[in-house]
Design brief:
By secondary structure, the chain is mainly beta. The chain contains one helix and ten strands. The protein has one helix spanning 2-21; strands at 58-68, 72-81, 88-99, 124-129, 132-135, 143-168, 177-203, 208-224, 227-228, 233-244. Strands 1, 2, 3, 4, 5, 6, 7, 8, 9 and 10 form a ten-stranded antiparallel β-sheet that branches. It is elongated. 23% of the residues are buried.
Length: 245
């Protein structure tokens, strides 16, 4: 009898130790964290693996293909998960774009020297900083959708098209008249706004991140030159690649 009791106690101790080591609860059911799409979540519960849990994950990504309402360019972003379940993360993209859509039109630069003079204005640029958050409805997984609001701060320039008046004075042989010449002017720009970003996020490997993003929003302050234009449309989109650690 004493032998049976000793054997039973040994089996119970061994079974409890085995369940604990394999992440099982008291009912013997595994508590391994599984995402909705079936992929295992990084790390397991417990202090011994907290360095690998979601709230330790950081992603730094570049955007080799980037556009905004101003033009095309490049981007860099920083993301840091805020909870162990991977639902919310802090997200800060920085973007620089250039407006390449300018033409060799006649333009006004204080004075008209010649109505047939063609200029070649320098492309205007914009730099944006967009601090915000990303919300992952399905939590972790290899393929994840995210949505979230971002504040938008933009500084740079804007190219504006104008039809400038050209005045011809009257003379004995030519009565006075006015004609209009198309042109461009580059003005300083400062904007503040809001945007909602939608993104598709893929963990191709343990450390390789690939994503695509599209955001739409509006300005509530948009100063171009000396004039505040108020509400204007904002947009940004990107293809992203990065490193997660």
């Amino acid at each position: 009898m004493k032998g049976l009791i000793l054997t039973a106690c040994t089996l119970l101790v061994f079974g409890a130790t085995y369940a604990q080591d394999n992440g099982s609860d008291d009912d013997g059911i595994t508590n391994e964290r599984i995402a909705f799409d079936g992929s295992p979540k990084p790390g397991r519960d417990g202090a011994s693996c907290c360095a690998d849990s979601w709230n330790r994950l950081t992603t730094i990504a570049i955007s080799p293909l980037q556009f905004t309402e101003n033009g095309v360019g490049l981007g860099l972003s920083y993301e840091r998960a805020l909870d162990k379940n991977g639902i919310i993360s802090a997200y800060v993209p920085a973007i620089a774009t250039f407006n390449m859509n300018h033409h060799n039109d006649r333009y006004y630069n204080g004075y008209y020297n010649d109505p047939y003079y063609y200029g070649n204005p320098t492309p205007s640029y914009m730099v944006y900083l967009m601090p915000g958050v990303k919300f992952y409805p399905t939590g972790m997984g290899k393929v994840k959708y995210a949505v979230g609001p971002n504040a938008v701060i933009g500084m740079g320039q804007r190219t504006t098209r104008y039809d400038y008046p050209m005045y011809y004075t009257s003379s004995y042989y030519n009565p006075g008249y006015t004609t209009y010449v198309p042109g461009e002017v580059i003005q300083n720009r400062l904007l503040l706004g809001m945007m909602v970003n939608n993104s598709l996020n893929i963990m191709a490997t343990k450390h390789l991140y690939i994503g695509a993003e599209l955001g739409l929003g509006f300005t509530y302050y948009d100063k171009v030159g000396n004039y505040n234009e108020g509400v204007n449309f904002l947009a940004q989109g990107a293809f992203k690649m990065g490193y997660t650690f």
